[in-house]
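[recover] target loaded
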């Protein structure tokens, strides 16, 4: 594909008017090549490798999988898919394969001869073993967050997948930090190192130490979150049980929040990300699973409820804030009397009373029981809510459309009335049930 076409579609579909230096360098890196791209999570790596991948595409659609993208988590697969698909269409078809997704839906998408496949290692290998997915002729391979995939134990699956790919000439590996490159992908020829964030547009993070008078930090974190009212905040803990405990306490106090850890079903994790991203749940209580591999925009602050166990965890947690857009990130580390900061963690003294809350209108999420497979688009939903639901254009917030459902952020004080107003109507001649999502 021509770079001019890709950039025009990125403006139209993604609202991106100009490339960051890292993305521009990847755009000028012609595949086939073997590239390692190092940059912090959330710095724009997905668009960077998507441009390089699409520039490698040639020939007519439907003649086998031309490019494969492997990612370690379902959430990351969906984020990549949502970036690549609108840039590739209508020239090339893109499909996503991941655990928890309907096998029947995926089988149909593979039968339609996609050109680009994005998937998790386990699900990709499953389709290969069932002979639904043939990568023999695939020439471009991207492994996103490859070090995270290795950390999660996906090396054997990825090795088997790569072994079926006999004609790979273009390779892109991405990671947030430097790490050992697995033998099964071979050598890289070019290293693009933006890991310090200086050329990706990131801003530094201010870190403050908040002292807790008690070993149990629940009261302190509640006071801190009240002071951070209106700030989109991630509270990091070290264990799933602690995440459940902190989240449960916030729920009892009526503080809008969501929960994210590896023990949850993937549907619940995806819903948590949506509620956090669209503002319905401005506080996310999470393990380090949320510290990387997720593209979450506009995180104002992170809170270390527990001290991180490694320098990498400290860096990745803090890296969730101070993202693109010119804002200075804030991190708060809660320290009890019996704790001391590890050598790799530095913080300046902070006081909860000095934190300034932000005004933010309360948001609710509407759930549509139809999505992409029912030919429902973001534009369809926005128009429906404006024409039938009585909302002003500026009151329709973030819209997330999935295969068979969609989530829409609307003002909390208008959510119930909107649901009642649209109930009698169809959207694109399809009867769709719209409900207000309860955050439990």
């Amino acid at each position: 594909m021509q770079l001019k076409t890709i950039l025009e579609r990125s403006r139209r579909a993604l609202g991106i008017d100009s490339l960051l230096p890292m993305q521009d360098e990847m755009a000028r890196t012609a595949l086939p090549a073997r590239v390692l791209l190092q940059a912090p999570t959330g710095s724009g790596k997905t668009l960077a490798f998507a441009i390089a991948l699409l520039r490698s595409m040639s020939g007519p659609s439907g003649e086998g999988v031309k490019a494969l993208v492997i990612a370690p988590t379902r959430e990351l697969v969906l984020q990549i898919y949502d970036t690549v698909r609108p840039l590739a269409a209508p020239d090339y078809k893109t499909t996503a394969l991941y655990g928890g997704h309907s096998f029947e839906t995926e089988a149909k998408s593979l039968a339609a001869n996609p050109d680009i496949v994005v998937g998790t290692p386990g699900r990709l290998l499953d389709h290969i073993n069932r002979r639904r997915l043939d990568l023999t002729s695939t020439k471009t391979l991207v492994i996103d967050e490859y070090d995270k995939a290795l950390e999660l134990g996906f090396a054997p699956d990825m090795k088997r997948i790569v072994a079926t790919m006999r004609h790979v000439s273009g390779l892109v590996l991405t990671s947030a930090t430097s790490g050992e490159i697995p033998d099964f992908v071979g050598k890289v020829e070019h290293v693009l190192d933006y890991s310090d964030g200086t050329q990706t547009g990131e801003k530094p993070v201010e870190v403050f130490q908040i002292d807790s008078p008690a070993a149990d930090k629940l009261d302190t974190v509640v006071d801190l979150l009240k002071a951070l009212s209106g700030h989109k905040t991630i509270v990091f803990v070290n264990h799933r049980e602690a995440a459940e405990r902190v989240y449960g306490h916030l729920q009892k106090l009526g503080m809008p929040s969501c929960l994210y850890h590896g023990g949850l079903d993937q549907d619940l994790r995806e819903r948590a990300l949506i509620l956090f991203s669209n503002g319905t749940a401005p506080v996310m209580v999470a393990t380090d699973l949320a510290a990387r591999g997720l593209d979450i925009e506009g995180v104002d602050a992170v809170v270390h409820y527990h001290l991180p166990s490694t320098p990498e965890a400290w860096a990745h947690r803090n890296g969730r804030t101070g993202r693109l857009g010119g804002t200075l990130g804030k991190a708060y580390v809660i320290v009890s009397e019996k704790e001391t900061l590890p050598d790799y963690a530095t913080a300046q003294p902070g006081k909860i009373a000095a934190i300034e809350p932000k005004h933010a209108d309360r948001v609710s999420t509407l759930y549509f029981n139809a999505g992409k497979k029912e030919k429902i688009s973001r534009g369809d939903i926005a128009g429906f809510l404006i024409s039938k639901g009585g909302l002003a254009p500026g009151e329709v917030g973030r819209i997330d459309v999935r295969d068979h459902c969609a989530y829409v952020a609307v003002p909390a004080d208008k959510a119930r009335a909107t649901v009642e107003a649209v109930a009698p109507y169809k959207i694109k001649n399809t009867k769709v049930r719209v409900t207000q999502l309860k955050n439990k």
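[recover] notes: The first strand starts at residue 34 and ends at 38.
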